[in-house]
Inverse folding.
């Protein structure tokens, strides 16, 4: 066994094996994989092997697409047939809402080049007469996917990996990890059989590895403990049953018909596929419990839990309804195995928080589907420093230190039971809430706030009726304009015409100071640093010159800075910042960095009357001028006093109106809220939620992190040259310049359907040609029509270009506008008074 390698992969399931394969494929010739038992002995062996394309996320769709294409090539490379049955995948809809969901998904699929077609109930019946169709609205059909044998595909990847020089060591368990400062020392223990259990022997080796990847499946909690980090990957029970032969199916096939596609009856929470003349029924039922919250017992190896038939009775009856011929078929076999989940259903793939050269690939619930693509893109990340796609939505640091085992377990159970719900883009899930609340939460709730979940925080999405029933927000959801839409319209108008107050407490905030702080930030971010008392918008880049974090930098002193970034990404931003500081402090000098996110509350007040509201509260020797342009210009900061509350006021407004962000001590939030509310009464101030704010910022072409800004585009591609100082040297600059502009960010006004706005996932056409995609969408109160932002090929990124947006399966007119179609000269933001 080797004791020194470049990369050590821990875990020989589908995911770990694919990562080892792809690291070798990407050129690393010294890769070893450790598996504590046998390859595939985790969840992989008992997976049903379905390879569904369907996923509402752009990154995950790319991952699934790569897997499906890659698995088709494996036999040629390895000589092993992985049993890929390309039978297609039929996703049926019983309601118009489900069709709306598929239409949104299909538009996303097109942005990734994933093929699909629509089928009517009659077309389904004509092709597959065993399926009952009279209660269906239609279906979405992917003819290129199907199912595969999970163990065989893993073995094929293992063979391919070995052929490329990967060493695979079975019956060795990684038991301890130690970072020396330059590499990892991993203690591995030889595992032996004892009384049917797999137990550690006395034989141990220490393996030196430059990089370690963990793909430990259901053992993620043990891995987390060994690494001293948190990983919210905890399995949930998942069942499927195999039924005896169905005589009608046997006859149908004997007549020469091809195999049925995988049949997904999403409204009945189940999938069905053929298996030797019978059917397999898999379900995503309610009340499936989380397992192994504190680790997998030694006694649980390639084992299963007992079948719980009662729990899946409803889905079983629904299957008999859908395929009546199976009613007499008996139960032949059953599987109830642990399937790893995460709170949002996406796996955790990327650098581990706080650790160097430690990569996680944990929490896979569709791990057979995702293994190929995960290996490919993670290898890019490790070998080249970045992947072609933005991996942020999979990054392990999207949950912070506030996350607990109890949270992960309950949220994972919820996620499992939500697999087949309607995936409304405006969905909010109820489990484990409220958890992180700012002090004004109760006051906002009393005023009708309907909250959204941001990194655990409760943040008002919009303010609904005061007497709203508990189900109000649930019932307000839609793929079109939901029941909340009118409230957001009123809120957006309030900011354009009067004044509104937005809770932005969830913002990530860091304080950076010390002798090395200025030089460090000058290198770390791409814009000029602001002068003392001023503010700049700037970007920290990846080594590939794409956007890693967007910062509002406030310069508090010569060597003291207050950094504000997106609320959803606190741990993600903190990790990158801290690692960069560690690397650069020896060069630039001592730098202190504090995450002060939970110490500061933030209210954003905006609208032409916002100064009037603040004037009534501000305490100053000359209160009438303290907020004037002369004393408090746009893009500057002042410490002011609002009544008895000390406020770090920042003159910026993400809505594009006159406004200030009021950063205040969190413990004074309720005092400040009451003062603002009282002073605002006279001016008709409205409480405003995140949805209206999201629309307003699009009228100003303000890019948002996670949509327009991410690791797949440079700030030049985001068309933000004014925030890049090419005269200085900064991290990622060379690659930014080298990359050029592959596609460009634009704003579009859209003549869409009368009852729907885009969500920011839709495909864009120019004539018959697919030319880009939306990354944001919504409604513009200023223009009275839909609005969106997105990326198109640079030659088309010219104001006046007419494109089409695909919404609800139709193409709608859209026109590229000037940047900032609303108040392009920023006169409203600069308004004096
Ligand atoms: C009933 C059921 C049906 C499913 N159907 C599908 C499906 O149709 N399609 C689909 O895409 N997915 C399906 N899944 C999910 C799929 O099985 C998993 O997502 C996938 O197997 C995860 O692969 P993995 O490599 O991450 O984990 P695993 O297969 O669990 O592999 C992890 C491996 O790591 C090893 N290991 C752990 N810790 C250590 C250590 N310290 N040292 C050495 N080795 C270690 C374990 O022994 C294990 O072999 C299903 C799951 C279930 C339960």
């Amino acid at each position: 066994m080797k004791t020194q390698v470049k990369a050590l992969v821990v875990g020989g399931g589908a995911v770990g094996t694919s990562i080892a394969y792809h690291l070798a494929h990407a050129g690393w010739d010294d890769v070893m994989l450790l598996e504590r038992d046998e390859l595939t002995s985790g969840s992989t062996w008992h997976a049903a092997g379905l390879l569904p394309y369907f996923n509402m996320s752009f990154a995950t769709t790319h991952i699934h697409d790569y897997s499906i294409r890659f698995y088709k090539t494996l036999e040629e490379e390895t000589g092993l047939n992985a049993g890929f049955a390309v039978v297609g995948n039929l996703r049926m809809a019983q309601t118009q809402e489900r069709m709306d969901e598929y239409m949104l998904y299909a538009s996303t699929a097109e942005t990734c080049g994933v093929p699909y077609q629509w089928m009517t109930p009659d077309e389904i019946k004509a092709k597959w007469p065993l399926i009952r169709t009279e209660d269906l609205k239609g279906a979405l059909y992917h003819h290129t996917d199907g199912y595969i044998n999970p163990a065989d595909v893993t073995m094929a990847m293992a063979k391919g990996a070995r052929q490329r020089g990967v060493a695979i060591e079975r019956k060795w368990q990684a038991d301890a990890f130690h970072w020396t400062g330059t590499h990892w020392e991993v203690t591995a223990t030889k595992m032996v059989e004892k009384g049917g259990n797999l137990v550690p022997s006395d034989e141990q080796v220490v393996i030196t590895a430059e990089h370690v990847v963990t793909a430990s499946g259901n053992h993620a909690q043990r891995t987390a403990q060994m690494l001293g980090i948190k990983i919210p990957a905890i399995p949930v029970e998942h069942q499927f049953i195999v039924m005896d032969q169905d005589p009608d199916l046997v006859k149908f096939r004997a007549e020469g018909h091809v195999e049925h596609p995988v049949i997904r009856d999403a409204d009945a929470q189940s999938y069905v596929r053929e298996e030797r003349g019978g059917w397999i029924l898999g379900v995503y039922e309610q009340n499936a419990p989380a397992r192994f919250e504190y680790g997998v017992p030694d006694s649980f190896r390639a084992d299963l839990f007992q079948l719980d038939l009662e729990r899946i009775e409803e889905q079983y009856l629904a299957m008999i309804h859908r395929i009546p011929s199976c009613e007499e078929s008996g139960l032949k076999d059953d599987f109830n195995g642990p399937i790893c989940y995460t709170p949002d259903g996406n796996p955790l793939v990327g650098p581990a928080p706080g650790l160097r050269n430690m990569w996680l690939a944990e929490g896979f619930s569709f791990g057979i589907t995702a293994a190929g693509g995960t290996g490919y893109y993670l290898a890019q990340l490790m070998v080249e420093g970045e992947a072609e796609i933005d991996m942020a939505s999979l990054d392990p640091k999207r949950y912070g230190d506030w996350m607990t085992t109890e949270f992960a377990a309950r949220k994972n159970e919820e996620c499992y039971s939500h697999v087949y719900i309607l995936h409304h883009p405006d969905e909010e899930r109820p489990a484990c809430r409220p958890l992180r609340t700012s002090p004004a939460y109760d006051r906002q709730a009393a005023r009708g706030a309907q909250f959204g979940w941001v990194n655990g925080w409760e943040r008002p999405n919009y303010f609904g009726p005061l007497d709203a029933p508990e189900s109000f927000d649930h019932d307000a959801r839609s793929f079109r304009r939901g029941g909340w839409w009118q409230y957001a319209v009123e809120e957006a108008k309030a900011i354009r015409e009067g004044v509104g107050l937005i809770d932005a407490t969830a913002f990530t905030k860091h304080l950076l100071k010390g002798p090395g702080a200025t030089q460090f930030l000058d290198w770390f971010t791409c814009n000029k640093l602001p002068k003392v008392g001023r503010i700049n918008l700037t970007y920290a880049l990846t080594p590939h010159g794409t956007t890693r974090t967007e910062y509002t930098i406030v310069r508090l002193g010569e060597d003291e800075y207050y950094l504000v970034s997106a609320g959803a990404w606190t741990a993600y931003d903190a990790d990158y910042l801290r690692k960069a500081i560690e690397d650069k402090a020896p060069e630039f000098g001592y730098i202190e960095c504090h995450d002060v996110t939970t110490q500061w509350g933030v209210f954003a007040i905006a609208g032409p009357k916002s100064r009037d509201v603040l004037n009534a509260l501000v305490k100053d020797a000359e209160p009438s001028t303290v907020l004037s342009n002369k004393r408090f210009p746009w893009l500057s900061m002042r410490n002011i006093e609002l009544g008895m509350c000390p406020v770090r006021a920042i003159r910026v407004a993400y809505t594009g109106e006159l406004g200030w962000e009021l950063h205040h001590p969190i413990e004074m939030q309720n005092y400040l809220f009451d003062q603002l509310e009282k002073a605002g009464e006279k001016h008709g101030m409205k409480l405003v939620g995140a949805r209206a704010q999201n629309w307003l910022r699009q009228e100003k072409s303000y890019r948002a992190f996670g949509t327009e800004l991410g690791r797949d585009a440079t700030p030049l591609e985001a068309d933000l040259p004014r925030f890049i100082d090419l005269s200085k040297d900064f991290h990622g600059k060379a690659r930014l310049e080298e990359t050029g502009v592959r596609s460009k960010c634009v704003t579009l006004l859209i003549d869409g359907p009368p009852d729907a706005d885009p969500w920011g996932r839709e495909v864009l056409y120019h004539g018959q040609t697919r030319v880009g995609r939306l990354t944001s969408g919504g409604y513009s109160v200023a223009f009275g029509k839909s609005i969106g932002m997105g990326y198109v090929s640079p030659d088309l990124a010219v104001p006046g270009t007419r494109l089409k947006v695909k919404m609800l399966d139709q193409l709608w007119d859209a026109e590229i506008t000037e940047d900032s179609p609303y108040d392009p000269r920023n006169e409203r933001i600069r308004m004096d008074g």
